[in-house]
Amino acid sequence: MFGLLSFRRPDLPFDAISRIRMPNWSRGRVALVGDAAYAPSFLTGQGTSLALAGAYVLAGELATHTDHTEAFGAYEKVLWPFVTLNQELANEGDTALFPATEESLQKRNAALRALSALPSEPPHATYSALTLPGYE
Ligand SMILES: Cc1cc2nc3c(=O)[nH]c(=O)nc-3n(C[C@H](O)[C@H](O)[C@H](O)COP(=O)(O)OP(=O)(O)OC[C@H]3O[C@@H](n4cnc5c(N)ncnc54)[C@H](O)[C@@H]3O)c2cc1C
């Protein structure tokens, strides 16, 4: 890292990787959606999916409740387990971007060498662990 910085490149991006974990996603008449409430970090590749699912569920719950506080509570109840599962993906240590163990690195490299088409393997079950309500 210091070696890279010693080049003094002005176009070198350098930042921390963060997750957001809030005790609640709403207060009063304000509710948070997406990264502001539950950014999973780009290690999971799931931030956009969580944000879209969250926006859909929040809109659906607001449309089907007259009391916004009940809608906010239902939004958390439906989405919270899915968000938690997906945030945990960053702890697995075998992300393709930054494998954290020798085993993960070997697995990632083997998968890349064997790659002939996308997707290379079945998607992680966590990605589809939520069945979205219909809100008819
Ligand atoms: C390097 C990187 C790689 C990623 N790769 C993936 C990936 O492969 N797959 C995936 O699903 N996700 C990925 N993500 C995560 C994904 O980008 C985010 O989870 C997603 O964009 C969150 O959407 P959002 O609408 O909650 O927030 P954002 O997309 O951040 O949108 C928030 C918007 O609010 C605006 N804003 C901020 N403050 C104010 C203000 N005061 N007034 C008005 N507007 C304001 C911002 O300009 C921005 O346009 C990646 C993220 C990064 C950083």
Keywords summarizing the entry:
136 residues; mainly alpha; single chain
Explained architecture:
By secondary structure, the protein is mostly helical. The protein is 43% helix and 3% strand. It has one domain (17-128). The chain has helices spanning 2-5, 35-38, 47-64, 68-88, 102-113; strands at residues 26-27, 30-31. The chain has a two-stranded antiparallel ribbon with strand order 1-2. The relative contact order is 0.13. Flavin-adenine dinucleotide binds at residues 34-36, 39, 42, 45-49, 51.
Write the layout of secondary structure elements.
Blueprint lengths: L1 H4 L20 E2 L2 E2 L3 H4 L8 H18 L3 H21 L13 H12 L23
Antiparallel strand pairs: 1-2
Helix pairs in contact: 3-4
Flavin-adenine dinucleotide binds next to helix 2 and helix 3.
Quick summary of this structure?
The chain has 136 residues and is an all-alpha fold.
Compute the CA-based radius of gyration: 19 Å
Number of domains: 1
Helix count from the secondary structure assignment: 5
Integer average pLDDT: 86
- Approximate helicity band: 40-55%
Shape: globular
Structural class determined from secondary elements: mainly alpha
Total beta strand runs = 2
- For the biggest β-sheet, the strand order reads 1-2
| Spans of at least 5 consecutive residues with low confidence | 1-6
How far is it from the N-terminal to the C-terminal residue, by CA?
53 Å
Report the bound ligands by name, code or SMILES.
flavin-adenine dinucleotide
